[in-house]
Amino acid sequence: MPKNINIIGYILLTVLLLLMPVYAEGDYNHRLGDVNKDGSIDIADVVYLFKHRNLEIEDGDLNADGSIDIADVVYLFVNYQKMREPIHYAKNIKITYYDEYGNEVNPYNGEKYAYKIVEDATGQRFLLKNESQPIPSWAEGKYDKVINIPLKRVVVMSSTHIALMEPIDDDGSVISSVKGIMWGKLYEWYFDDIKKRLENGSIIDVGSTYNPNYELIIKLSPQVIFVYPGYDGDKIIEKCKELNLTYVADAEYLEDSYLARCEWVKVFAAFYNKEDVASKYFTRIEKRALNVKRLTRNCDRPLVAWGKNYPEWGGTYVPRAQSYVAKGIMEYCKGDYIFKDIPGTGSECISYETFAERARNADVWVVPSSTKWLSNFKEEHPGYENFKAVKDGRLFCISEDYWQLGLMNTDEVLMDLATILHPDVFKGRTTHYFLKYNPDNNTAVPYIAK
């Protein structure tokens, strides 16, 4: 009898170990779907996966259901054409690669390119070529401007641009090309190389986004000014046109998923011939982000509130149902978002009363701001102390470095979000980008899942 008990205990222990949320890292040198590791995604990968299921979970579990089985083979068969494309998630990126004869090729699927045409968020078309290359006759009518790459001198409008350049700066050439940053010395920088360059003068603060110092910018002779459309960006774009300065509009903030926003790294990679570096970086982000789906697939859905009240701006801003935030909550982290009935991307401004009516019953409340901007939290959120999330100690804010390091580490942001939603699944894990907020003294600390 004792022997049978030991056997049963061993079986139970084995089952528990198999269920533990621990995943080996996949192969980030090969894109998701390139299971045979030959550098391309095609029907051969479908055949390979059908014959071989003993892969690391990040490499073979393509549908992110926690196992590698025939369902993944079917998934790859149905989706391999889409998976082989250079851009998977971002809807506002348009990059076309060509060989020297004008045939379209795909460097993200192992093919060699000679030229590329990038269309930015304002519809400008740029023919990108190495300085020694001629302008090909077949490209006539396909572009508006020619830019020699890799870029050597640029000005950027936002810290998020830097966050998308840092991952491809493997040899220092990308960040060394940055000669000016708007708000450069007013940002709190979490990239040491940027901080040092601003201190030693190799990067210049070229003024605010609402009133840049164009004399300084012109003296820097930038090949490109990276801007974002909307807000202050539209005025900068008009001024660049007036001054005949070349600008490229990056619209990562308009994308509708965390991975789509991060995928704009591939646009910056195009301007520096860093496609190989961007591919490995984004593959790591993508494969690890899918772990969040695996770990939360069997969880109940906690009710999630996300929003901050801005009385001076007319109300409480909340993500709409198809926004990247709402999708992160519902599709990746298996939460139930309180305003999933407000359609659209981006944010919606609603009355605080409307927000409070639903938010008071939420299991988790995320205030999308750091403590630096939350000194008036109590006055701006009357009755907050009666919210369920506050009573249960599940009120969170974001870290100071969220918009810089967080964008660069999108997979960790999603894992942190899943951790605060499902602490029972992530016991012992400490968050970085979502912090437990104490409104009594306006402080926030990393959250340790229990």
From TrEMBL:
Residues 153-425 form the Fe/B12 periplasmic-binding domain. It comes from the Archaea. One of its GO terms (biological process) is polysaccharide catabolic process. Pfam families: Peripla_BP_2. SUPFAM superfamilies: Helical backbone' metal receptor, Type I dockerin domain. Gene3D superfamilies: Dockerin domain, Nitrogenase molybdenum iron protein domain. Coiled coil: none annotated. Signal peptide: none annotated. PANTHER family: MOLYBDATE-BINDING PROTEIN MOLA (PTHR30535:SF34), VITAMIN B12-BINDING PROTEIN (PTHR30535). This is ABC-type Fe3+-hydroxamate transport system periplasmic component-like protein. The lineage of its organism: Archaea, Methanobacteriati, Methanobacteriota, Methanomada group, Methanococci.
